[in-house]
Amino acid sequence: MIGALTELVYSELRIDAPMVRESFLANRESSDRSRRGQEGFVPVSWDEALDLVAAELQRVRTQYGDDSVFGGSYGWSSAGRFHHARTQVRRFLAASGGFVDQIGNYSWGAAQILLPHVLGDYSTVTGAEVDWPEIVEHTDTLVAFGGLNPKNWRVTAGGAGQHSSADWLRNARDAGVRVIVVSPNGDDAPRDLVDERISPRPNTDAAIMLALAYELINDGAHDRSFLEKYCVGFDAFRDYLMGSNDGVVRDTAWAAEIAGIPADEIKGLAHRIAAGRTLLSATWSLQRAEHGEQPFWALIALACVLGQVGLPGGGFSFGHGSINGVGAFRRRGLAPTMPGLANPVARSIPVARLTDMLLHPGESISFDGRDVVYPDVRLVYWAGGNPFHHHQDLNRLNRAWQKPETIIVHEPWWTPAARRADIVLPATTTLERSDIGGSSRDPFLFHMPRLIHPVGGSRNDFDILADLAARQGCHAAFTEDRDEAAWVRHLFDAVAVAANAQGLEPPTYEAFIAKGHWRVPPPTDVPTLFGRFRADPEGNPLSTPSGRIEIFSDTIAGFGYDDCPPHPAWCEPREWLGSETVRRWPLHLLTNQPAHQLHSQLGQVSVRRDPAFGDREPLMINTADATARGIERGDTVRVFNARGACLAAADPRDDMRAGVVCLSTGAWFDAEPDARSPSLQRRGNPNGLTNDIGTSKLAQGPSPLSALVEVEKFTAPDSGVPPLVLPPVR
What we know:
Layout: H1 5-9, E1 19-21, H2 22-27, E2 41-43, H3 46-64, E3 69-71, H4 85-95, E4 101-103, H5 109-119, H6 132-138, E5 141-145, H7 165-174, E6 178-182, E7 196-198, H8 205-218, H9 224-230, E8 231-232, H10 234-242, H11 252-259, H12 263-273, E9 278-282, H13 293-306, E10 315-318, E11 348-350, H14 354-359, E12 364-367, E13 370-373, E14 379-383, H15 387-390, H16 394-400, E15 406-411, H17 416-419, E16 423-426, E17 435-438, E18 444-448, H18 461-472, H19 475-479, H20 484-501, H21 509-515, E19 517-519, H22 531-535, E20 549-550, H23 554-559, E21 587-590, E22 618-622, H24 623-628, E23 636-641, E24 644-653, E25 660-663, E26 671-674, E27 677-681, E28 708-713
Helix pairs in contact: 3-18, 4-18, 6-7, 8-11, 8-12, 8-13, 11-12
């Protein structure tokens, strides 16, 4: 990925001047919005572009109010913490009057809402986890629901100076830790480091966890004293497992039928996790599905049944297989952080409900115990992300994208979002600006010096927004009278103050700049996750209503949601391999991050793939499923359902569960009319097929992993992957 940066920066798709969509320049808010993505652009000067943006913001706010402006920015635009586009655009919009904001994220949106009800906060997905050294020393069995995929250890928000997760897993294996992976995809963990693999149907992890808890309780292997002292609601959970109220016993036979695996596999796993110190781990991906709250809640409940929460190397943890640095032995609280500004508009939507908001202004949805009314958004301001990559059901988003009167986008390249904007402001890349990088999951702080001058007419997001702020009368509030250099130093100084508070002696700013980085000394000790709570639950209570782990939540019970019970439960998704929908769409589509790029970044450069796949994204498919469809390795295949279709290259594998396919995200959205489905994406973005529904009324998180499809050999003339070209520019 690093080696592709030169090609990325000098890509032919760079935007070299401010651009305005042709009919928008002529007709403004009365332009034909259905032409977004098809119409050409007109280059204008920076002054003309900024005057136009300022006028549109003023017009929309005057006519419709500040809550008609949506600050829709989301993405991994840079490792730098100052030039973090989402932070910058939200600061500007807050300073200039306010905006409709987003709650949560696409990574662990369901967990962010659920976990405070169960644990008191959601720190277990933001940096509080069981460390690898503790696993190596104390853990007997590591059960990884969702896997431990090495490709995910290459990246982390803020940048990674230490890539050690793979080494730690090997150290754990060498120390005798038994590694068990639960995933339908055999590629989800290093094969040589896995002792046992269980391959269930997707979306059934919660059922397996519930059956494991049942087995332990039924055998009397549960920790009664832990459950009584540290938890609330166990009795109701036990009654659910035993079928006391509905007659359904959640035993291994019940779960085996749901998950499509032998009951003996689940029973054997129950005996193994009860035999010693066990860490139950889950990837973030498990909660990106309909009812995604349930596997995380069930994992916590299962760990409580074992009674090892708060013991070294035991309990539960999230994200070890999701991103670099989870479990790293490092100090916390020393990541550079760009401060936000108070938003005068007290309105926000769950991040994954973007399309619904645009399509249904004025409608109300349930969300975490309250009602959220969708605003009537007339202007969208987007910077630092590509919604036509990470959102679900992109054909539906494409239709919704025609609703706002004005769309403004900052972008270095002609991405799908930029092509569908009215005003496009060319932004610099990370190599064209100075910054400071660092992550709460990594021991390094980085100086990120500018390496080249800005390409073409591009400018830093901060400088663009500062000039806009001057036009809006809020320049001082936005900039705080600091330029780039002053801000970078300010962020370093804030870290230095925090480091001093921890008894460290950070380098001077000048020494930091000269060396290029500071490796933060390791901690002398990292507390065991929930160790203080276990040692003294009265003196160190959780921030839940009870002060304890809530296996049953009275708060959630009070919401009365029909799709999120007040305790961990199996809730059947609408689309899964056990549903009636499978008669029409027989394959469950999994989506994951590609190994050769990050999200849709690098989607416009040449990549180093297996030559058998050409330039197409490989679709992992079970060998027998491929054979039954007359598909061989390297064949172009059409992946489709009622929401859309895309082309991919077949990659038959024996270690992919039958009935499951996997296609990485990252390809740029390029919908074309197709007589057999809403659109055909020749580049292969699976989010044209995924389901745009909330996880539940509780969290309203994204549910991309609850989608069924069919796959067939593509028999039409195949002209290959179409090149990405510049839009018409007049």
